[in-house]
Model the fold of this input.
Amino acid sequence: MQGSDTKKLNLPLDKPEAESLRAGDRVLLTGEIYAARDAAHQRMYGIISECEAAGEDPRSGLPFPLEGAAVYYMGPSPAPPGKVIGSAGPTTSGRMDKYTPGLLDMGLKVMIGKGKRNTSVNDAIVRNGCVYLAAVGGAGALLSKCIKRSEVIAYDDLGAEAVRRLYVEDFPAIVVTDSTGKCLYA
Amino acid sequence: MRDLDVSEITKNVKEMCIEANIFMEEDMKEAIYKAYDTESSEVGRSVLAQLKENMKIAENERIPVCQDTGMAVVFLDVGQDVHFTGGDITEAVNEGIRQGYTEGYLRKSIVSDPFQRENSGDNTPAVIHFNIVPGDRVIITLAPKGFGSENTSRIFMLKPSDGIEGVKKAVIDTVTEAGPNACPPFVVGVGIGGDFEKCAIMAKKALTRHAGIKGSLGSLEKELLDRINESGIGPAGLGGSVTALAVKIETFPTHIAGLPVAVCMCCHANRHKQRSL
Done:
């Protein structure tokens, strides 16, 4: 998705960098991102809810530090021998909407997926100066080439839905919702 | 009668799972290439350029075009003069799925129970539609279906008075609501008539119809395709002139009181393979 205006970004993004992005900007990401989708989000949400009910800080129970982190809604196909990862494109972000505002309030900075988000997520993006990016759905083989390292760091029992720490280089994405709340989708 | 050992079914289903997920059908490839040539928006063209590149990488590196290698949908048209030997035909299909998804490094995306949600570990079971037909051949059509698009499919139990305009509205509304979530440019399968489940199965089966085979409602297919492409949703939902690659309609007689319409949304990969044994 490269164009003449493509911006190269190194992760993690700080607040001014995240807030400087605008809906429609095309970016190439380099750095660490965490892959997590439905079942992992459900577990993280459960931990946060339990800790809040008990008056405890949930951070130590979560599989990765949320502060400044980038999450990629993705469950890869298995890595064939000799490859870092299998096909690795984005899944539909809207299924994570229920769990997302809380994560953004706790410091999550960047989300990468595809498709529409609800009003609660958009509000939390603005409230926290975050950014929501889309990668091209169905381009899993192409996107896998940008993933240079992959390791399962939590919830191994979930298989494709385990939490993975990825290192990406020049991973192509487009800003869908920026920190002012502007959304690229009609 | 012609004897056919079910191990032949297993072997072919296994190979078809791997092929369908790595090598897109020629008609779908051509549709993506044509879309790239005709797309009017720059961002849309850049998305389609990625999809072209994606198909090449998948083939060259033998990895799936999409990480969601789907729930395996199998249409089995069984000639009435075929006698299956050597075991249970349903289990033979599922064994093919098991072997294909394991040996082909395809993602296992099936949970054994909709509430417990524990992964079955081998992508079984498949959804199998048996159909008894004349002759002594078995035609296997295998279509792995991802749920980014499947989740946006809809059924409408319209009234006869809603007529063809109601059908068009159902299709356009479904596509509009699906938007960027279902990985446009889409292929849209539509089943009209029959009853609740018949129209849904027709809509799914329509997706597997080769681009070269025209449906009986070609003019309606074209009108809907044009209207969908006027929506401006575009590739990846980022805006553009190519929102769908094809609309495929199947019809069946229905009841005097009803006009069922199913709209099965499919992404740009629209994976399917067919073999005749």
About this structure: Residues 147-276 of chain B form one domain. Chain B touches chain A through 44 residues (CB under 8 Å). Strands of chain B lie at 2-5, 71-79, 82-85, 127-133, 138-145, 154-158, 186-194, 244-254, 259-266, 273-276. Residues 172 and 228 of chain B are 7 Å apart (CA to CA).
